[in-house]
Amino acid sequence: MCCYYHIERELAEGEPIPIGGPFRNTEILLLNEENKQAKEGEICIRGTSVTLGYYNNPEKTGESFVQNPLNTAYPEIIYRTGDIGRYNEHGELVFVSRKDYQIKHMGHRIELGEIEANVNMIGGIKLCGCIYDEEKGKIVLYYVGDISSKELVKQLKEKLPRYMIPNYVEQLEEIPFTANGKINRVSLKDKYKKEKKHNGRN
User: Fold this and answer.
1) What is the DSSP letter of 138?
2) Which of 110, 112, 199, 201 is most buried, taking the most CB atoms under 10 A from its CB?
3) Could you tell me if 40 and 86 are in contact, meaning their C-beta atoms sit under 8 angstroms apart?
4) What is the spatial distance between Cα 24 and Cα 149, in angstroms, rounded to a whole number?
């Protein structure tokens, strides 16, 4: 718990609910791949909200609880959330995607979460999950809903640039989940690999 959002305006249709701003004695840093402050980057937390680490997990603690790269004067631990965020036109922090879901495709840096967000706004879509085939350089989309894959792609072309349109789209009866209730992307990748091997897909 490090941020809060006080609703003072009406949100536009399809606009994500902002994360808002940090509590007192807490600061949010958006760091890019060069560990420099940026308009969009990994959400990092500094201040009294930062804990000592993950319980009984020194490896994960070492990855996420690190020295503040902007501070070379004295030891200061910040928490790297693994979430990508940005500030909107109102100065509110909003979630963009998980850092793990950021890919390089056709010369463009793409957030798979942004593709999912646009898919989920299409009528008839109940749930979706996006993965990336690094070997073939293809964006793969699985979804559950009452809409054909052809119609889904057609509507996506009105929302997204060409390089963000999934190369492979498949409708499922259900999306697999992890024990934590999150979309199981590892399972989706395994499913795609099996299908690709079975069909001899290029």
Assistant:
1) E
2) 112
3) yes
4) 47
DSSP 3-state assignment of 173?
coil
What is the rounded CA–CA span in Å between residue 158 and residue 119? 11
Cβ burial, residue 56 (10 Å; 0-12/13-18/19+): exposed
Residues with Cβ within 8 Å of 191's Cβ and at least 6 positions away in sequence, in order, are 142, 176
- List the Cα angle 3/15/119 in 5-degree steps: 115
pLDDT of residue 197: 80
SS (H, E, C) 41-103: EEEEEEECCCCCCCCCCHHHHHHHEEECCCCCCCCCEEEEEEEEEEECCCCCEEEEEEHHHEE
199: which strand partners?
none
Q: Sign of the CA dihedral 84, 89, 91, 92?
A: negative
| Whole-number Å distance between alpha carbons of 182 and 161 | 27
Cα–Cα dist 136/138, whole Å: 6
Strands 125-133 and 108-111, by their bridges, are: unpaired
CA 202, CA 197: separation in Å to the nearest integer? 9
Confidence of residue 200 (pLDDT cuts 50, 70, 90): low
Q: What is the predicted pLDDT for the residue at 150?
A: 95
